[in-house]
Amino acid sequence: MPLDEIDRGLIHALHIDGRAPFSRIAEVLGVSTQTVARRYRRLSAEAGLRVVGLADPHRAGRAQWLVRLTATPHSAQDLARALARRSDTSWVKLASGGTEIIAVVHTPAGGADGRSLLLHDIPRAAGITAVSAHYLLHTYLGGPTAWRGRANVLDARRRRQLTPPATENAVLSPATGATPTDDDQALLSALQRDGRAGQAELAAATGWSPATVARRLAALRASGALFFDVECDDTLFGATTQALLWMTVAPARLEQVATALARHEELAFVAATTGRTNVVAHALCPDPAALHHYLTHRLGGQPAIHALETAPVLRTVKAAGPLISPPGRAG
């Protein structure tokens, strides 16, 4: 399905504020509220559009591992689907001709109790021929920062109209601190399924009053402990060729190189990791020729990058949010 200016503006608006009322988005886009609601429903059904609420992993005491699995061709797709169904995974991708699975695995930071997938489950899975796990040390691009290919429609004035103001009723005292706690799990789980869930729905999920939901949600957002991501089919934005790039960078230049890469419009994700390679990036390009040009001209101009491995992405089996059916409601 082709995207027009209203579709692109709506998606950009949701990247700015995933919970912005349709009425506010409509005012910024210069269309009716009914048009925005109708477009959202259509994009949800046909383009996989969904807003998901995510806890900042560091504030939530979570570690993130980027796991690479090499599997036999007949088992790779089944393994990818099995990983996608797990609650401790996100961004499950099939790559390298369908023989490699790449996934982000979330574990308790510093604890051994959440490492079953890394240390026990994976080695027991049939068809796996190689495993490597890379601890995500620092994210330079990604998370709350949208890929520029989706967030390039609204001008500065309209972006300001949509940017949530500092929340005045977010009380950040020790008693109501903005670091997620066990009491927040029901709220966070509901938002992960549908970041636009209404106050009444969130109240039902948590057992709190709508006023308590509003205050806690405001506090978590204001502190940065909770952010909202947007899932959508990137091929509709012309990104028909995607690849994960594993780079070896001189340690003394890692910060400089990763910061520079985070400004590249071809990249949606840049992070420092442990392992044989120490920087990973996710590239989205219009076609193989554009990816080749990016690798040879832009990355090739970085002398501190000593080695580069490219893993073409065939399909994203799971994005940031959990697998659900049917897709989340408009809210």
Give structural notes.
This protein has 331 residues and is an alpha+beta fold. The protein is 34% helix and 27% strand. It contains eleven helices and ten strands. It has helices at 5-16, 22-29, 33-47, 73-84, 116-124, 156-162, 185-193, 199-206, 210-223, 254-261, 288-299; strands at residues 50-55, 62-71, 89-95, 100-108, 128-141, 226-231, 241-249, 267-273, 279-285, 305-318. The strands form two sheets. Strands 2-4-3-10-7-9-8-5 form an eight-stranded antiparallel β-barrel, surrounded by four helices. Helix 2 (22-29) crosses helix 3, helix 7 (185-193) crosses helix 8 (199-206) and helix 8 (199-206) crosses helix 9 (210-223). The chain starts with a helix and ends in a 13-residue tail after the last strand. The model is unreliable at 167-176 and 326-331 (pLDDT under 50).
Q: What class would the helix/strand composition place it in?
A: alpha+beta
Q: Helix tally?
A: 11
Give the termini distance in whole angstroms: 23 Å
Instruction: Report the strand count.
Output: 10
Task: Please state the CA-atom Rg, rounded to the nearest Å.
Answer: 20 Å
Q: How much strand?
A: 25-35%
The rough form would be described as globular
Mean pLDDT: 89
What composes the largest sheet? 8 strands, antiparallel, barrel
Which stretches are low in confidence, meaning pLDDT under 50 for 5 or more residues running? 167-176, 326-331
Helix content: 25-40%
Strands side by side in the biggest sheet = 2-4-3-10-7-9-8-5
Taken in chain order, the helices and strands follow as HHHEEHEEHEHHHHEEHEEHE
